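Give me C-alpha cells for this 791-residue protein.
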Amino acid sequence: MSPATTPTPPPETAPPRGLFTALARLAVRRSRLLLVLTVVLLAGAVVLGSGVADRLRSGGSGGVVDPSSESSYAADVLEREFPGARPNLVLLARADGGVDDADVARQGRELAARLADERGVTGVTSYWDTGAGALRSDDGREALVVARLTGDELEADRTLEDRIVGHFDGRQGDLTVRVGGSVAVQNEQQTFIREDLVRAEVIALPITLLILMVVFGSAVAALLPVGIGVIAILGTNAVLRVLTSFTDVSVFATNLTTALGLGLAIDYALLIVRRYREELAAGRDLPAALAVTLNTAGRTVLFSAATVAVSLAAMMVFPLYFLRSLAYAGISVVVLAAVAALVVLPALLAVLGRRIDAWDVRKLVRRGSRRAPEPAASGAGWARLARGVMRRAPLVATGTLAVLLLLGAPFLNVDFGTADYRQLPSSADSRVVQENIRDHFQGSPTGAIEVVTRDAPAGGLGAYAERLSRLDGVIRVDGPTGTYQDGRATGPAQPGRTAGETAYLTVVPGVEAVSDEGKDLVRDVRAVDADFPHHTSGTTAALIDSQAAIGRGLPWAIGIIVLATLVLVFLLTGSVLVPLQAVLLNALSLTAMLGAVVWVFQDGHLSGVLGFTPTGSIETALPVLMFCLAFGLSMDYGVFLLSRIKEEQERTLDHKAAVVEGIRSTGGVITAAALVLSVVMVAIGTSRITNTKMLGLGVALAILMDAMVIRTLLVPAVLSLTGRATWWAPGPLRRLHDRFGIREGGPAPTAPAPAASDTPDAAAPPAVADTAPPVPQERERAGAAAGKQSG
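Here you go.
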C-alpha cells in the first residue's frame, strides 16, 4: 500500500473529561455487558408492552374535553344520576315491509328486551315501546333502539365486542340490524388505527433500510439506526403500558410512538454513525474515534433531544388527555431514542469496530466503474449551493419568504370542529348507521343537547323548557314536566328525569350537531336565563369548551416552546441573534403544513385521491399536536446545522466559510434523515382514519419543507445577510455562555485560529481545540484515500 494513500492519523490528544468521554470509555470497556443488558431489558419491554393496545383509549369520549368545563360537569352528573340518559349505542333495524307491521313490531320489542337483559346495558328505548316519531325513519322502513353501555370507555368497548356485535348485528327474524352509536364509531376507529399502524410499519421499515443503505453503502451500518429505532419503539410501548395504570392514554399515542421512535432514533444514529465513520477514515483508532464522535455528534444528539422533548412537553399545559397522553408518549420515545443512541449504539460500534463498513453494497458499482466514487462526506454540491445562495441572499430570502407565506395563506380560513363518524371509511358499519340516522330521521338521538338543572321548581322548569323550545334550530325539548315544541306543551311528563333536586332536559336539534349552526344553538341554549343553576352538555357543548381550553393554553404552550428554544440555542451558539432566527425560521417551516391541512382536509381538495371525506372543519386539538411535533423536529435539524456551523466558526473565525462548511457537512445527513422520517410519516398517512392521515401527511410535508427549503435556502441566506453580527452577544451573556454553554467540539479553543478563506475548498488551518475533529479537508483526503484503498 502506497504511503500516499494511507490516511495520516491526526495528532492524538487526551479526550476531555465529562459525560460523553465517560460514555465512550464505558462502551469500549463494557460493550458486551451493555449489549446483554439491552437484550434483557428489551425482552422485558416486549412482555410488558405487549398488551398496551388493548388499554389505550380512542379519545372520542373525553379525550378532547376539558374535565373542568361546564359540559364535563353536566356529563358527570348525568353519568352519576341518570346513567341511561345519554345513549351511546344505536341499533338500526330495517324491515322491508315497514316497521309498523304487527309481527315486525313484536320482534322489535323482543329485540329491545333482549338488549336490556345484557349486562352493562342500561336506558334501552325503542320506537316500538315508545312510538316516538324521532325513532322512526321518514319512509317507515327503519326504526331505532337506543341504549347506553355503562362504565368507562374501555368497559363499554369490551361490552360492545363481547355481548353486542355478535348477538345483535345482522339478520334478526324479519329485521336486519346494524350496530352504531358513538361507542361503535370509537371501536371501529381503534380497530382501523391498530391495523393501519401494522401496515405503516411494514411499508416504512424496508424503505427506510433501503435509504440508509444508499446513504451508508454498507448493510451493517444501515441496520444500526433501524435497530435503535426498534429499541425506542418497544421501550416506549412498555412506558405507555405503565402509564395506562395511572392515567388515560390515547390510541393515537401508538402512531406518534412509531413515527418518533423510528424517525428520531434513525436521525440520531445516522448522525453518530456518520461522524464515527469520518473519524475512522481520518485515521483515528477505535477508542479515540468513539470519544470524538460522542463529544461532537453525541452532544448534538443530546441537545436535539432536549429541544424536541420541550416542544412536546408544551402539550401538557392543556387539560385535554388527548394532548397530554401524546406528550407522555413523545417525551418517552425521545428520551429512549437518545439513550439508545448514546449508550447502546456506541457499544455496538465498539464491538463492530471497522466492520461497520461490512457488506458494502457499493462494491458492485465500483467493479463496474474505473473511477472510484466521490466520498459521501465531501458534499461538494451542498457547498456550491450554499455559496450560490449567499451570493444572492436578498433575492433568495425574499422569494422563499413570499412562497412560504403564500403556501400558509389558506390557514387564515381555518374552521375548527371535532372528529365524528366521517373520520371512518365510507364502508364502515358504524358510519353507515350514523349517515342513515342523519339523512332519514328527525334529529339525532345521540347528538342531543343535555341540560342539567338543580333546585328547579316544577313550574319554573316547565317555563324554562318552553323558552328553550322556541329557539331556532330546536325540534323539541323533552323533560320531566313534558315535551315542548315551539313554546307549547305537546306531550306528557317523562318519568325518570329527576333524582332528588336534580333534573335534566333533552334539547333535540334540527341542525347538524358538529357544525357552525350546532355551535350557535348551544350558545343560544346557554344564554337562556333561569332562576336556578343549569349546565349544558353534549357533543357540541364539549367542542365549544375544548376550543376555549385550547385558546387559554395556547399562549402558554407557545411561550414555553419559544423560551426554551431561545435558551437552548443560546447555550449552543452564544449568540443573541441566532436563537431569534431559529424561532422565526422554524415557524416559517410550518406554514406549508398548516396551509395544506386547511386546503386539503378542510376544503376537500385531493380528497378523492387521498380517500377521505372532508367535513369542512379541522379537529380542534390536532393542529396543536402537529405544531408542537413539527416545531420540535424542525429544531432537530436546526440543531444539526447550527452546531456544525458554530464548530467551524470557533475553529476558523470566518463567518461565511463556517456557514458553507456547515451546509456542506450536514446537507447530506439532514436530507437523509428528513427522507427517512418523511417516509415513516407518509406510511402513517396511508391510514384510513382521516385525522391520522392528516397527521402523517402534514408533518411529512413540514419535515421536507424544513430540510430542503429552510435549511438549504433560507438559513444560509439569512446568515449571509446578518454577517458577523450573527454571533454577537452582550458581555454578561457572553460570559454566561463561556461558563455554561454547550459546544459540539468540546471546550473553546485556547487560541484563535487564522481566518480561513470564504472558499471551503482552500487549505484550512489545523485544529487547535483539544477535542476538535480533523479539519474537513483532511477528512475528504482521508475518505478519498480510504475509498481508493477499499476499491
